[in-house]
Amino acid sequence: MRRFALIAVPYVWLLALFLVPFIIVFKISLSDLALAIPPYTPTMRDGIGDMFAAFDFENFVFLTEDDLYWKAYLSSLRIALISTFMTLLVGYPIAYGMAKAPDEWRATLMMLVILPFWTSFLIRVYAWMGILSNEGLLNQFLLWLGLINEPLVILNTNMAVYIGIIYTYLPFMILPIYAALDRLDESLNEAAEDLGCSRMQAFWLVTIPLSKNGIIAGSFLVFIPALGEFVIPSLLGGSGTLMIGKILWEEFFNNRDWPVASAVAVVLLLILVIPIVLFQRNQQKQAEAEQ
Amino acid sequence: MKKSIIGGIAAAAVMATSAFAEEVRVYNWSDYIDESLLEKFRTETGIDLIYDVFDSNEVLETKMLAGGSGYDVVVPSGTFLQRQITAGAFQKLDMAKLPNNGNLWDVIEDRLKKYDPENEYAINYMWGTTGIGVNVNKVKEVLGDDAPVDSLALVFDPANMEKLATCGVHFLDAPAEMIPAALAYLGENPDAQDVETIEKAEPVLTAIAPYVQKFHSSEYINALANGDICVAFGWSGDILQARDRAAEADNGVEIAYNAPSEGALMWFDNMAIPVDAPNPDAAHKFINFILDAQNMAAASNYVYYANGNKASQEFLEEDVIGDPAIYPNETTLEKLYTTSPYGPKVQRTVTRMWTKIKSGT
Fold first, then answer.
1. Is residue A282 part of a domain?
2. Which one of B71, B350, B355, B356 would you mutate to disrupt binding with A, by most A Cβ within 10 Å of its Cβ?
3. Higher confidence at residue A23 or residue A281?
4. What's the number of domains chain A is made of?
5. pLDDT confidence of residue A3
6. Is B213 at the interface with chain A, CB within 8 A?
7. How close is the nearest chain B Cα to the Cα of A256, in Å?
8. Which residue range(s) make up the domain with A204?
């Protein structure tokens, strides 16, 4: 009985929070646009039999006919990959510093990483608009230093999107890497150095491989939400920033085409399933290795 | 003792329900009312007013078509109103509950019939034009003293835009307004409904899109007022609000608005009651409150938009009623055009074109 409950609980969870919403979205993606409330047809009101008879994959075929969609998926992938990599470059040294810091500092350092979360995400992104704009803090500062003569155009470009994503998701990168580095046995590094490794070599050959799981976990935690990101590109990005989150918005709000919007969402989910499965595998392997 | 506690709870519950029973939820455009009017409504009627804002018709329409928005009064623009009426999103107004509707201005009511043929679903809140706001000094600096600030050529001629890009240009992120404007620039019918004509707007917009810093429908108010940008293609009152904010801040920024001489879009924002409004009674009370000549005048004096209320005109300040950018004179009024809603197929073409223009793909 207890075993049954143990298995049942996660499945009920998955069913209620993932499968049911997915089926609803998938159902809408098979229907057609209509000027009504809700704005698609057929619905349950038409009778279950007729509803199923009217379903088709037209909207998915439509996605393949216009190059906008795959370009948007690709561009989202590129932005998510680059910003994940950049987050790693920024996050790893911070996590490393935290793990090497004296014990009495660690709690404070941890607080500093988590503290920004106490402010609303939206407000923090808005703050970046104030920092990056032509008349913003950054440009004023650089002009004052005399490093530039003309304000740099950063806001409303992809650069601002990268900055926004790196800033927002940095703690998701730092925390798992910190957790991995924290558990690292210092004597392994000492052994490496005793055996003739330089400091740098020991870092590349011992520390990095042993914190691999933290790097992988952090990267997925940044990559997956960054791929479908909507708020950051719409506030900080410019007209040239093509991301699938924005396409989804346009289908839904500008075209009022819920069926096509749902089809876009279903495909996005399928794209996301691959990294999620990889992540799951990695977590499992890690758990097994520890046993 | 126990009894009195229960009695007290019951009494409190009754009071609570009566206190919460009268509640009205209004969903209006951002920066579109004098906030003190909201307080006045609460004190005068005792109704609890919840006031939310949006900045695009699309967001409102999606909520209306999804149903169950929970709002009692919403303010869609003309073409959107028409489409939502067809979809069955609104209920007919009960004119008996709107004694102030005698204040309405017949000129505007007539124009509104294009979208609501019997004037039975909606009451005009405000109307305005879509045109060009400029930072006078910066534009002169870039284009010289004879810059064509009252012509669509300012924003649709790439030669001008290339220079203006250095000081920043924002466009509305509203294809249903920008495409008609591009058609007007070409001398085509801005209200064209056939894809062939609409597509003529694409090369015009594509040529200048690289010089547009942002397509957004509300940020330009602040951006203009702060001097972050020098040109905005936007809504008349919003640009006049930017002018006012800059003047208040005394930051040396001077903003001017012009309805383009080639013709400008005239649009109408109208109050309507969703078919599933939780409290249609209170909704009528709110609309009637706004219809009051002095209240309507207070709103217009605050946001610099013209309204559809004839009786309010005597209470309007001179810089509102006397400003041709707000209340255009006869000749300009003749040049203003209105548009009709696109069908779903054309809409898709328009949105697709817009994405292509903005992102290059």
1. no
2. B355
3. A23
4. 1
5. 73
6. yes
7. 7
8. 67-256
